[in-house]
Amino acid sequence: MFIMMKKCLLAIGLLSLAFAVSCAKGGNGVVPEISVNITNPTDVVPNQIYPGQPVTVTATVSGTSTMSVNWTVTGGGTLSNPTALTVVYTAPSTPTSGVTITATLTSDSSVTSNLLITVVDVTTQVTPAAPAIGTGLQQQFTAIALPDDAPQTFTWTCMANGNPCKTFSQDPNISGLAYYTAADSCTGSCIQISAITPLDPTGCTTTPKNCSIGKAAIVTSRLNGTYAFQFSGYDTSNNAVAVAGTFIAVNGTITSGTEDELTSGGHAAHTISGGTYTPITASNPNSNNAGTLALTSGASPNKFQVALDSAGDLSMIEIDGHGTGSGIARIAAASSTFAGDQTFAFGFTGVDSSNQRVGYVGVLAMDGNGNITTGQIDVNDNGASSGICTASPCTVTGTYTATQTAPGSMVITSGSVSQHFDFFISTGTKTGKATPLTFYAISTDLIDSTHPAVAGTMVLQDSTQTYNNAALKGYSVSALTGIGTSGGTNVSLTLGNTDGNGNFTGQFDQNNGGTIVTVPSSTSAASFAYTYAAGSTTNGRYTFQMLGNPDASPVVAPVPFVFYASGVNRGFLQESDQATSVITGTMSPQGAGNGAFDPTELPGTYAATTSSAIAAADPIAANLLLNSTGGSTGYSVSGTEYQDQGSATVTGTYALANDLGTGTISLTAPAALSYVIYVVDSSGCGKSSLVCTIDDFYMIDTTSGDKNPATIFAQQ
User: Fold this and answer.
1) Segment 477-499 mean pLDDT
2) Cβ neighbour number for residue 534 with a 10 Å cutoff
3) Domain 225-331 is found in CATH 2.40.128
4) Which of 213, 626, 634, 668 is the most exposed place for a label (fewest CB within 10 A)?
């Protein structure tokens, strides 16, 4: 079976670019040599081509005045159009790993060089792999062929319980794009969608070897079940607002729920008595992935534009006219997942009583009996520790309660200050590893000089780890947001590599109030070389060096950060030098795909939303469609961007700049904008033997002069 994702191929036998064999000397004593290579290969894996593919092979001769060779091939395929130093090789119609092309010096048959070629199956990948599709709504499907220089031309098939689908069409302009409208009468994952290329010898059977089958389910509404949600934004007077809560949806109708709201007037709890989810116009290609959510609670925000990912998570922005902001809603885990002795890392942001930015990061150990036995917190209140924690880090203790009904509540005490929070069980499992249990927390105190208004996320810590330097090893992506040095916002993305010994190296892109910093710069090939260190208690607290600018003259020193780990290379970051920028964010593991990312892994539909530190940054929700038309430059971006005042069409292109999963998105609409993208792979593509797709990526605007950029998170 062909290993479908080319980056997952074993490289044995594929990396032999050329072998020169010299058995004679020229008249001047120089040994004649030949090297043979495929000219301008478009595929990343050396010398891997698809059945029937024609490639030009070139010989380079040195050490002799004879600039010509004779060509032969063994193992299959044909040679044509030979010249003195080139020949066209056409692969056979079936896969093989035993092709050898030999160049022999015309003046001396003892001087030869061999090129080993592997002919691989063309395989196809369809995404999304298993979506739920609302009745009457339209879902876009994308297909790619691998290797990516294979013809991106497809024949699509859509079957509903073994019969052709009623409403299915291929895009007239992009062969790898198709549309399905849920109009069939069947239950379960009854819709099967596949795409094959003309080079596929067997088609896509029920037990496919060289293709994947998308298996979709038709549902009355995509909004079904118990959801937890969180939201942060600003009212029409630019005062900070935060909301956390839960609601129950039955076929798109909100039946009940509860929420906590923080405004400039303080905390208030509300009952959600009803509401609806309404998809956008059914004729729109995004109709299955977007709609409006209205919550009846007697408070605002109460109406949201949402974009849905394939799992049914909602990226949200406020559209009720009472303010602006963004958030997320996810299917909640069962209450029983919160049980026993569990430790949570957390990151909260908000404002103090003067409406200045505040950040908390820390760790809380909950014993299963209502006690927070040990904990630690670092606080940055507009550049000061504040009365909560006079000198970070501070030890905290406390209590909590949790029942089968939301919300839970907790009190955390540091010194003489006690803070009260409600929390809502979101998604995740008990293990704390790949899909850790997550809470959305929000403070419930009266806002005063020692009680800021904060909200954020708590994530179950992986208890199998000892959080020393050795625990952090591998690649990660850090997404950071704060206040700009000279106004505006300060956002950045970092691809870092921790080596287990306290060394932290990598690259980053930053937009600090319109000033763009890229390390390594265009004039430097050197990545940053910083450090990290575990705390003495090994409870998950680390110190990190990040940002700065080693390429500047004079060098800009790195910024100190504190990091509380919820797992290996996963957790919450906060600027620790008490600067008023109050930069906060998250670190996410880049998975097992280190050094093995390719643009062919990105095609699919994504839901995206923003995170920002100031009211001036416009929140957006977006449905992004990434697609491929083949070759090294045929990667497009399209979709719809939603703002509080309407929507706009998105068009542009994307590219990955290296195997480590960083690249660019260049938009032509709704405006000419430049973004960098950093891939987060949670699926382990780097060591899987099957087709892989990238689930998530971050992006930030690197258009010079954009003073109010936001961090955008996109999830497939």
Assistant:
1) 95
2) 21
3) yes
4) 668
Domain ranges of the chain: 6-119, 123-219, 225-331, 335-460
Domain spanning 6-119: CATH 2.30.30: no
**Length of the chain in residues, anyone?**
716
Pair of tokens at residue 582: 């109050």
| Phi and psi at residue 286, to the nearest 5° | -95, 5
Chain centroid to Cα 271, Å, comes to 34
**Spatial contact of 47 and 118, defined as CB atoms under 8 Å apart:** yes
pLDDT in tens, 431-461: 878 889 999 999 999 998 889 999 999 999 9
DSSP state of 448: B
List Cα–Cα distances, 659 to 392, 679, 683, in angstroms.
Answer: 39, 10, 16
Beta strands in 91-167 (DSSP E): 96-105, 112-119, 123-127, 132-134, 138-146, 155-160, 163-164
Confidence check: pLDDT of 272 > 70: yes
Type and span of the H or E element at 478: strand 473-483
Residue 560 CB coordination number (10 Å): 16
Best CA proximity match to 191, nearest among 144, 140, 133, 142: 133
Left if phi > 0, otherwise alpha if psi is -120 to 50, otherwise beta: which for 173? Answer: alpha
Q: How many CB atoms within 10 Å of residue 110?
A: 11
φ/ψ of 501, rounded to 5, equals -125, 15
Give the number of C-alpha atoms closer than 13 A to the C-alpha of residue 692, restricted to the C-beta side.
Answer: 25
Cβ(13)–Cβ(116) below 8 Å: yes
SS3 70: strand
Fold of 123-219: Immunoglobulin-like (2.60.40)
Q: Confidence band (pLDDT; 50, 70, 90) for 230?
A: very high
Q: Locate 240 and state its tokens.
A: 């900070």
Give, in order, the Cα–Cα distances in Å from 166 to each of 136, 157, 185, 195: 11, 12, 10, 17
Is 0.85 topped by the overall pTM?
yes
Q: CA 252, 407, 589: angle at the middle one, nearest 5?
A: 80
Q: Kindly report the average pLDDT of the chain as a whole number.
A: 88
What are the backbone dihedrals phi and psi of residue 563, each rounded to the nearest 5 degrees, phi first? -130, 125
Distance of alpha carbon 134 from alpha carbon 434, whole angstroms: 29
* Token code pair at residue 437: 């249990």
What's the angle, vertex CA 128, arms to CA 123 and CA 134, rounded to 5? 145
Assess whether the region 6-119 and the region 225-331 belong to the same CATH fold.
Answer: no
Indicate if the pLDDT at residue 66 is higher than 70.
Answer: yes
